[in-house]
Amino acid sequence: xxxxxxxxxxxxxxxxxxxxxxxxxxxxxxxxxxxxxxxxxxxxxxxxxxxxxxxxxxxxxxxxxxxxxxxxxxxxxxxxxxxxxxxxxxxxxxxxxxxxxxxxxxxxxxxxxxxxxxxxxxxxxxxxxxxxxxxxxxxxxxxxxxxxxxxxxxxxxxxxxxxxxxxxxxxxxxxxxxxxxxxxxxxxxxx
Length: 191
Prior knowledge:
The chain has 191 residues and is mostly helical. It has seven helices and two strands. The two termini are 63 Å apart.
C-alpha cells in the first residue's frame, strides 16, 4: 500500500476518511520511528473530548414551543426534482477495501453422490466403493480421471465414452461400483 505520512493519506482511504491511522499507516509510522498517536486527528484525543462536554448542554424543547419568525415559516421547501432511473445505480468511484462485499467461496459438490466438500475426481466414497466391489473396477476408476473430455455435439458419457447418456445415468458405472442397476436386480460384479 502507498502511505503518505505528510498528507496523512493511504490507498485504502481509511486514514483519509476516519482521520485515524489504518494498519498500513501504523506500519509506516513505526518504520519511521514516530509516535502513532501524533497522527490521530485532534478531536479523537481525550483533552478535546473533555472540552466538548465541559459546558452545559441544554435540551431542545418540543417543536411547538420553538419561536420561529414569520419569514421562515412562510417559506415552503420542496424536495429537489429528480428522476429515478431503473436498474442498479452506477458508482463514480472504486470502493475502498473496507467497502467491498466479500462473497463466500463456492462450495464444491460431488457429481456422483451429490455431497458437499469434494468433486467427482477426488470422491473417496466412489473410489472406496469401487475398490471393495471388484478388482476389475480398479482399472475402470483409474481410467476415469485420465479420460480426455470429448467436445462434440453428441452427448457422451464421461466414464465409459458411449453416446446417449451421461455419467449420472451410466449403467456400467453403477454396475462396477455397486453391483446393482436402478431396476433393483442384483448383478454379480465383473472379475
